[in-house]
Design goal:
Distance between the termini: 76 Å
Shape: globular
Oligomer: single chain
Protein name: ABC transporter ATP-binding protein
Pfam family, one: ABC_tran
Helix content: 25-40%
Number of strands: 10
Organism: Mesorhizobium album
Largest sheet: 6 strands, mixed
Bound molecules: adenosine-5'-triphosphate
Keywords: ATP-binding, Nucleotide-binding, Transport
GO molecular function, one term: ATP binding
Structural class: alpha/beta
Amino acid sequence: METPRKRLDPRRAWEECVAVQKHMNASLPVLAAEGVSVRFGGVQALDDVSLDVGDGEICGLIGPNGAGKTTFLNAITCLSRPQRGSIQLSGRTISNAAVRDIIGLGIARTFQNVGVYGSLSVLENVMLGAHHKMGGKVVRALLNPVGAWAEEKTVRRQAEAILDELGMAALSAARADSLPYPLQKRMEIARALAAEPRLLLLDEPAGGLTHGEVSEFGRLIDAIRHNRKLSILLIEHHMGLVMSLCDRIHVFHLGRNLASGRPEEIRTNEAVIAAYLGRSE
Ligand SMILES: Nc1ncnc2c1ncn2[C@@H]1O[C@H](COP(=O)(O)OP(=O)(O)OP(=O)(O)O)[C@@H](O)[C@H]1O
């Protein structure tokens, strides 16, 4: 006798589909760039570079001055348009995204030269990081604090919590331009975190820190990664920080990939040592 066929339960099938999709996304790198080239007139700033950042990883991006590191961050955030190559975020192509959509896709960054709104308070600067989530209401609330509404209060509370996490709670009411340079850089990280990114891009965040402060800063970045389950791509010239903090390191030289590997592999890589000492290979 023929056994009766099991009826397909559409709800169960959908849940299984979602579970498979989640599993596939989890195994994809958060960031995958392939064959990216960027030219400015006669300058080939990036020439066929590839780089990936895994889920929950901190990857370093290092290289001598002019290697193309900042241009690469600009390409990821669509401030520079690559002439060739593809850039994917968790499997989704973002190379053609509009600059304003990048933060909504889950990428936030800090800049090599700090960009603070000097006359606003530290807290207000951080709240601006949540601007994209609130459809412009954060700016309106800052211009007209009397008409504060519930969502603005939520954004304010989140910004206060981030400042606390970064050890800056006591500075929240200070004017942003009254902070010393290293704290302005830390405030930029707080603002980037307010966007609740999946991928955080840090461009020389340890600039201006003393040797002793750098170790404490490294522990803070590591804690942020774990607490917020973030992936981080870090450009930094402070080699002690890069070697101690990063899971993997990508090295660019003259706009090209020179090496990729774990810190101990990069530290002893002959080509990397030669590039930093200014010898041609
Ligand atoms: N907007 C631009 N117009 C023309 N050339 C540019 C532009 N931006 C970058 N470059 C050139 O592209 C190359 C790579 O510059 P980039 O700033 O990306 O290097 P970097 O590795 O970040 O350097 P640094 O460590 O000094 O910050 C350099 O030769 C630079 O002069």
